[in-house]
Write a structure and sequence with these properties.
Strand content of chain B: 25-35%
Bound molecules: adenosine-5'-triphosphate, magnesium ion
Number of strands of chain B: 20
CATH superfamily of the largest domain in chain A: MetI-like
Structural class of chain A: mainly alpha
Oligomer: heterodimer
Order of helices and strands of chain B: EEEHEEEHHHEHEHEEHHEEEEEEEEEE
Radius of gyration of chain A: 24 Å
CATH superfamily of the largest domain in chain B: P-loop containing nucleotide triphosphate hydrolases
Number of helices of chain B: 8
Keywords (chain B): ATP-binding, Nucleotide-binding, Transport
Organism (chain B): Microvirga aerilata
Pfam family, one (chain B): ABC_tran
CATH topology of the largest domain in chain B: Rossmann fold
Membrane topology (chain B): Peripheral membrane protein
Number of strands of chain A: 0
Number of domains of chain B: 2
Helix content of chain B: 10-25%
Distance between the termini of chain B: 39 Å
Largest sheet of chain B: 6 strands, mixed
Structural class of chain B: alpha+beta
Subcellular location (chain B): Cell inner membrane
Distance between the termini of chain A: 39 Å
Order of helices and strands of chain A: HHHHHHHHHHHHH
Strand order of the largest sheet of chain B: 6-7-8-3-9-10
Number of helices of chain A: 13
Chain lengths: ~280, ~350
Amino acid sequence: MTSSARSTSHWLLHYGLLAFYVAFALFPLYWLLKVSVTPNDLLYSEGIRLWPSRSSLAHYTFVLAHSDFPLFFKNSVIVSGSTAVLVTLIAALSGYAMSRFDFRGKMWLVGLMLITQMFPLVMLVAPIFKLFSPLGLTNSLTGLVIVYTAFNVPFATFLMQSFFDGIPKDLEEAAMIDGASRFRAFRQIILPLTLPGVAATLGFVFTAAWSELLFALMLVSKADASTFPVGLLGFVSKFSVDFGQMMAAGVLALIPACLFFLLIQRYLVQGLTAGAVKG
Amino acid sequence: MASIDIQGVRKSYGTVPVLHNVDLSIQDGEFVVLVGPSGCGKSTLLRMVAGLEGITSGAIRIGERVVNELAPKDRDIAMVFQSYALYPHMTVRDNMNYSLRLRRTPAERMAHVVSAAASKLGLDTFLDRKPRTLSGGQRQRVAMGRSIVRQPQAFLFDEPLSNLDARLREQMRVEIKKLHRDLGTTSIYVTHDQVEAMTLADRIVAMNGGVVQQVGTPLDLYERPTNLFVAGFIGSPAINIINAVLRHDGEQRLIALESGERIPAPPRVGGHDGQAVKVGIRPEDVQISAQAEGDFAGHVELVEPMGLGTIVHLGTAHHALKAFVVERVNYPVGTNIAYRLPASKLHIFDAKTGQRLPE
Ligand SMILES: Nc1ncnc2c1ncn2[C@@H]1O[C@H](COP(=O)(O)OP(=O)(O)OP(=O)(O)O)[C@@H](O)[C@H]1O
Ligand SMILES: [Mg+2]
């Protein structure tokens, strides 16, 4: 085989595999979209088709105008947004400390944080409910934010630590010698270089909180504090599942997450530290 | 500008001692070079002066002030890192500005100082570039520029040239020397390159294993090394070391080399009859001749032409010997060579302690 034929077949194999993977991964999303625009009367009558013969936005109109979904959305945005910001803030500080300082009990702290990640969360629902209910934190968005923050901080801390570990210590030392306090060096020199890490952490926590169901279901029983995953369950009634509306709501639920990633994707691109030090 | 005084300073990491009782006084305006092999604690000492490492015991003064408990930002010193440590998200101008901005220097003065420093270092055309677009040499200059805009009490350099190629290193060495001549700022310079140490220093501090071995001018260390370590570390090609025994033969003092040959001891050397010693002689002090005009006989094992001169490796019955000659000799391997070890050029060290014998 000539080398150009060889490289062409490599190219084909390479992109063929990628295309297959992308199609495989995105197909459910496509199906979500397809069902959401399929009118109810065609849903079961048309058999399996890639696109319905007639499409309509009726499900969307219904979900937006006649259901509690706008409220659930608002709640989800508030809860996920505050959790993401809060967790990232805490994780940035604790990750920095983990990366830069040696302090007594560090090993224990790391161990403890790992242990919190080992329990199945179901085990914790009852005790947390018990704790929260006298404090008035059940049926409240604040309660959800607290729980999500608590469960996401350990992992986010490890994530941020690994990003800080990638930034040479020389940089903040140079800044400190230039006349900055450690905190100022952190803010003005280190943090700007960790933006990809901050973005990744924000994104990770946001998605985790956005799709969390267990606690959202168990700690909240009233509609006015429900988040959208709980709302989705509302389409499953005793006698039927309203697939069209459920899918429409699902598509809508994707929008904030997509917007959020669009916003941070610029920072997810690595390579900001190039040129800091030799190499 | 200020003097720097290091008194009885120790440093341990946990229970591992890294610096043992370092005493060093650096005068105002002096250029002091710390040299020593890797891991001897040079950087640690420098970083303690900078305030980046805690001081286990002892005191460091900058000017009249004890700075032990002072944060780096309050010590008014500048430091050039081996990695340069440029802020990657800032332009060259902002890198150089940063310390001035923190001190709320008026914009006009800041612009003036930065452009003066930039033109001194040949950086004028790079001011608006980011560090990653610069070559290693240019980054090195920016790191220097960042230090000189401040007019600090002292400059600290931690192997600033070791990431550059040989040609550039030589060039920057000269520039650093000129800079020091122009600014006269007290400087501490860490390197493991003894050529840098010799050429730059007003005084050299030779360190080994966390202990200061000798402090003195470059020629002090070269001509009167206080122990075997300094003798071996300073000078390239390295000094020859030969095992020997001191012999007092009536009035005459001799050195019996391990080969059995005897040579006169240097005048005024101390020590006692029968003392085991190590004799050092620098390669350029070994006199060789192909005409058999010498005290001892050897043969050529290897010839290394250096352009500047030639290193001739001699084999003798009992020890190897390097000789450096300015001539371009090209002896075939095996040539018989006579050599002489002039008494006045010998360095005699106690074999056990490695210390130079008193004179
Ligand atoms: N944070 C630390 N914890 C424990 N030991 C350390 C630490 N930093 C340095 N050391 C030890 O202290 C000793 C001196 O280190 P230092 O960096 O001062 O050496 P150096 O003379 O600058 O060497 P080099 O020429 O390789 O830079 C080394 O043996 C090193 O292993
Ligand atoms: Mg070092």
